[in-house]
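input
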Amino acid sequence: MRVLAYLPLILLPAITMAKPLEVFVSVAPLKTFIEQVGSDHVVVRMMRQAGYRPATYDPSPQQIAALSKAALYVRTLAALIEQARREAIRVVFVQPQFDDRLAAQVARAVDGSMLVADPLAGDYVDNLRRVAQPFAQAIQS
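output
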């Protein structure tokens, strides 16, 4: 079993940064989701504008250059679930500071579970003790 913590772990450093994290997405619903999760800490851009067909879309050189400098590229939820299945992910970790709907959906889709891990918890040691066992089980499986 592997740990799916991509988005929260990538977005967490953005909370402490002065400059927003630049994120590219493949579809509009992900743009909305990332903007809601990341708030002022992210700038989200679409790879493909309305009217372009995914099968025939060809990014411009400017988009490729911008994408190469982005901190994160998020594909569709279906692609995320497919990757989670390929990697046999069974535990999806989520931070309480973020909306957990996407994590719950991924966990259900892979017949896994969702666990809240709070890296910003006031009692850091207690928090580490609480999540240590599930982390260890996820890594060993």
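quick obs: The mean pLDDT is 78.
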